[in-house]
Structures are given as structure tokens and as C-alpha cells.
Amino acid sequence: MVMIQWEFCSMQGPPQWKKVLGSLLITSKNPFDKGATRLGFFMNYGSHQRPNAEYLRFLNWLVGFTDGDGTFTINSQNGKYILQYSVAQGNRNSQVLYYIKKKLGVGSVVSSGKGMKVYRIRDRNILRSCIIPIFDEKKLWTVKNYDFEKVKAASEVLEDQELTTGEKYSKVAEIKEKKAPEFYVSPIWSGNNQKIDDDWLIGFCEAEGSWYLVNKGPERVAPAFGISQKKDKHVLETIREKLKITSKVKLNKKQGCWMLDTTNRRAVENVRVFFEGRLKSFKSLEFKLWSKAVYYYDRKNQKEVRIIREKLRKIKEWSDPGREPRRVTRGLGLREPGLPT
Questions:
Q1: 326: which residues sit within 8 A by CB, 6+ positions away?
Q2: What is the DSSP string of 300-332?
Q3: Which residue, 268, 183, 255, is CA-closest to 223?
Q4: HEC readout, 108-152
Q5: Annotated region Disordered: where (predicted)?
């Protein structure tokens, strides 16, 4: 007999969550048998069961944000293995963590060291039924996919009722010690599936991108956009093509990472148009100021550009560890960005 049973990850979560993800329980034994095998997967929607487009866009954004600032880890504590999905942010951007928590309907936000907060999920049932299906269906684009696959494999081992506790821990220990190959590339890059989704790119750049102003001589300050990666040069190359940036991806030997930077006027305008009104995190405030600088730069008003640069510097100073995020906008003449619902 084959029995199929839906188990939603959070009955307290938003309604659309119950339409998006679940876990499939398939067993050839009695459904109450402890030997039943549980497999996580992303639901195939019927015409009457499709989540709204906005929520699917959020999931794409979340994958991009995770590619930037998320982690999948296997840790040992008190003789047990703990699997964890987490996203860390400074206090000034902690709102985005609560946004993720609200949208998913699971997880918790906790303090993590001075000036840092972390959204995390450690419950294996929630990981198995909610988080793993997301990243199984919507693959990570960076080397972080390897860490996800490790957590997924460890989850399957720990749920295997045919193994003893000792056998489980031995197998998980082996998985934990595995390192990504030097030239590992996420399987999402295989074949012709290499078109980066807009929402993924927004999430990724909110985590990793930088909109800033740089000296271009004693008399000129220019708008610039930059993004870096320790590995995954191919990701930056694809972003470069999508945003029509003419600058080449270069290796910064001093910092040990690949960098994509541009002050090219046309490329800066492409970046401005692409991200305008689309950022969800605290960086939307920085982007708004940067966009004003682009406006004044085009009109050769260096005085206003320099004023905006000082405002951006104040944001950095006022967002040091220990300061409350909502104090950052004082004196800037701007409202703090609100996150979408």
C-alpha cells in the first residue's frame, strides 16, 4: 500500500505558505510503522492550488539573499548534531530578518554577538518540510549550494529509521567534513538554464552589492556600483551581462576575491533603473541617496554629490554595533524604508 500525506510546515504561518510547500510521506508499510520514509519536495500545483505570483517572487528573492548572506551548517553540540539554516544581518538591517520570518511563518530571530542578529531554523522537521523543499526546487546559484546539499543529506541520514544512532552520527560526521571541490559549480548552471531571475538578483545584491560614491580626481566624486565574491566568478560575469556593465570581472589578489566595479555612466544608469523601487532591506535607503547623487552628478552639481556622500558616511557611522537601526535616518531628511508585507 502507498500512502500519501501532506504535512504543512507551519499552521501558524501565512495562508499562502500552506499552498506552497509541504512534505510527502511515502511508505509501503503500515502508515504507523516507524520505518516510514519521509521525502521533502516542492509541490506540483494543481490549477486550484497555485500560490500568488508575489509569493513566488519572494521565494526567488530569498534564494538570492541566501546566496549572499545565508548559511547552511552542520554543528555538533552536547553529543548531538544540529542542522541549521540561517541568515545574519547587522542591527541596522534586522528588519529584513523579521520580514523573512513573517513571510515563511517559521523560524526565529536572535541576537548573535555585538550588533548582529540572525534569522535561523534548527528544527529538523521544519527544515525537512519547509526549507529543504525551497532550495531543492529553486537551487542556489553559488557554491553555497554544496553546503545546502550537505545539510539535506545529513537530514536524510538522521531520519533513516533503519540506522542506529551510532551509524547515523558516523555518516553525518563524514558528510560534515566534506569540502566543496575547488572549482565546484552549482548544478543550476548545467545545460541552458543560466538566466538569472530578476528577484534573485535583487536579493543577492541586497546582501552583497554596494552603491557608493568614489573620488575620480581632486575635483570629482562619481557614483559607482560594486559587488564581490570569493568564488563563483561566473556569477559575477552573468550579473555583468544582465546589467550591461562594460567593466570586466577582476581578481583582487589583496582581498582574495573576484570583484565587479563600475563608474561607467551608462552602466550606472542601467543599475539605477534596474533596482529603483525594488529593494526590500535597509539598503533601499542607501540606494535612494545614491540615486539622488546620480541625478546631481549628471547635472555636474558636485556640491550636492559631496553632501550626499557625507550622508552615506553618517549612515555607516550611525549603524555601528550597538546602535538602534531606527536612529540612522535622523538628520538625513529621509524616511526609513519600510518593508513590504
A1: 336
A2: T-HHHHHHHHHHHHHHHHHTSTTS-GGGTTTTT
A3: 268
A4: EEEECCCCEEEEEECCHHHHHHHHHHHHHHCCCCCCHHHHHHHHH
A5: 319-341
Distance CA 75, CA 164 (A): 19
**Distances, alpha carbon 270 to alpha carbons 72, 224, 273, 313, in Å:** 33, 12, 5, 24
Domain stops at, among 159, 189, 219: 189
Q: Residues for the chain: how many in total? A: 341
* Residue 38 domain flag: no
Judge whether 86 lies within some domain: yes
Q: Contact at 8 Å (CB) between 152 and 57?
A: no
130 and 248, same structural domain?
no
| Distance separating alpha carbons of residues 96 and 206, to the nearest angstrom | 10
pLDDT averages per 10-residue partition of the chain, 341 residues? 36 39 34 34 38 91 98 93 96 93 96 91 96 96 98 97 96 96 91 81 96 94 97 95 96 95 97 97 94 97 97 79 45 48 51
Domain that includes residue 74, residue range: 52-189
Rounded Cα–Cα distance for residues 165 and 157 (Å): 10
b/e per residue 129-143 (b: at least 16 CB within 10 A): bbbbbbbeebbbbbb
pLDDT at 316: 77
Measure Cα distances from 57 to 51, 98, 202, 203, 233 in Å.
10, 17, 11, 10, 25
Q: How many CB atoms lie within 10 A of CB 252?
A: 11
Residues 97 and 136 in one domain: yes
* Domains held by the chain: number: 2
Q: Which residue has the cell 538570492?
A: 64
Residue 60 parent element (H or E): helix 53-69
Measured distance CA(151)–CA(128) in Å, rounded: 10
Dist CA 118 CA 158 (whole Å): 25
